[in-house]
Design brief:
Number of helices: 13
Largest sheet: 6 strands, parallel
Strand order of the largest sheet: 3-2-1-6-7-8
Structural class: alpha/beta
Radius of gyration: 19 Å
Number of strands: 8
Shape: globular
Helix content: 40-55%
Strand content: 5-15%
């Protein structure tokens, strides 16, 4: 049954005075938080873009790397400010990298010691999107070297990663980052989505993420779904078209 039909049936049961004794099913939970229009937008989307840190994975990758390199506390403060939108992303990115200055060896060792931890349900959600023929992208202000293993876990082609490229000298020491990457600056995520729309002509595109930079992606995104399963950011929760704490709500809608 379609979501509108199921919702209407639920209303008829309530109106007839029948007492529902069963626990609320996931679809009912989805309907309670997402409007019929939002559910339809997700079901019709031809492309879905995910933020990575605190959305696809349970950590902020740059904070994990900073902790490994001994700069954890100072970097975490910058990350919090950036994700809540109180500083420009490019300023926070430069400040954090100046504190960490990670070498290629640092990143490899960090990944070996702290492999990516996927958030609950995200693997199933992305698998369902793939089965539906939806193009899935990872659009992140994090680092390509740390996101490629995440893409591999989720069977997302590396060509569908938009993230920041770190620069190293011949000895593998950090020298900077590529400022031409759109995700290296504030407003980079809407820029990425605009490029995807121009190149592929998607009739529907959705952004899912936890932070202020994800929220910026609408427009051009048709819908922004805020995710609070790792951390809840009040400004994002207030502005999202649909806010979920559990990817199970989206899975139920797509797998109905």
């Amino acid at each position: 049954n379609s979501p509108p039909a199921m919702f209407a049936a639920s209303l008829r049961r309530l109106g007839s005075g029948v007492r529902l004794r069963q626990p609320v099913r996931p679809m009912a939970a989805a309907l309670s938080t997402g409007s019929i229009d939002n559910i339809a937008a997700l079901q019709k989307a031809q492309a879905v873009c995910f933020d990575v840190d605190s959305t696809v994975i349970a950590d902020e990758g740059i904070d994990v790397l900073a902790e490994y390199c001994g700069a954890g506390e100072a970097v975490a403060q910058w990350t919090s400010r950036a994700m809540n939108g109180s500083v420009l992303f490019q300023d926070a990115l430069e400040a954090r990298l100046d504190l960490i200055r990670p070498s290629q060896k640092d990143i490899a060792n960090c990944l070996a010691s702290h492999p990516p931890r996927l958030t609950d349900g995200v693997h199933e959600l992305i698998s369902i999107l793939h089965r539906r023929g939806v193009h899935v992208y990872l659009v992140s202000g994090g680092f390509r070297l740390m996101i490629e293993p995440v893409a591999d876990l989720l069977d997302i082609p590396r060509s569908r990663i938009f993230a920041n490229t770190l620069l190293f000298n011949e000895d593998g020491e950090y020298t900077g980052f590529d400022p031409t990457e759109p995700t290296s600056r504030d407003g980079g995520k809407p820029d990425v989505l605009s490029r995807l729309l121009e190149k592929f002509g998607y009739s529907g595109i959705v952004m899912i993420g936890d932070g202020a930079t994800d929220m910026q992606a609408k427009p051009p995104a048709d819908m922004f779904i805020g995710y609070g399963g790792v951390v809840v950011r009040d400004s994002v929760k207030a502005s999202a078209d649909w806010y979920v704490h559990d990817f199970g709500q989206l899975i139920e809608v797509l797998d109905a």
